[in-house]
Structure formats: C-alpha cells, structure tokens
Design brief:
The protein is mostly helical. It has helices spanning 9-19, 21-33, 40-60.
C-alpha cells in the first residue's frame, strides 16, 4: 500500500522549472487538476509558463512557420 506524501508545491515547481519548464507545467497541471489546488499563485504561474513556452517555440521558428508539438494547447497561426 502506498501513501501520498505532500511536498511543498512552490519548492517543487521551482525545482522542476530549473530542469525544464515543460516538466514544471505538467506538475502544475497535476496539482491544479488532480489535487484541486485553487491558489491563484499556481494558476498564474502555469499561465506564465504557457506564455514562456509559446515564446520559446516562436523564437525557434522565426521563419513564420507555426509549430504546435511542444505545447499541449493550440495556438492560432
């Protein structure tokens, strides 16, 4: 039998963001969707990460080409 352990969400998110923003976004999605985290801090941080990842994709594809595979949500071109 496994037991859930509560880790400090802010510290975990910061650690994961230093590794990879996409991993941090997945973690934030998990605590918001599965753990029903209602704090605006985490919702805002997730929105900021979506913007950051969108800008990274845009910079990588400066040629005007629209690239969606790095993002879970759709962006219009």
């Amino acid at each position: 039998m496994s037991e859930d352990v509560e880790l400090p969400h802010q510290a975990v998110a910061s650690y994961l963001e230093n590794i990879d923003p996409k991993i941090c976004a997945r973690y934030l999605e998990f605590i918001i969707d599965e753990r029903h985290e209602e704090s605006p801090v985490f919702h805002d941080r997730l929105a900021e990460l979506y913007i950051k990842m969108s800008l990274m994709v845009k910079r990588r594809n400066e040629g005007g080409e629209c690239f969606h595979s790095d993002l879970r949500f759709g962006v219009s071109c």
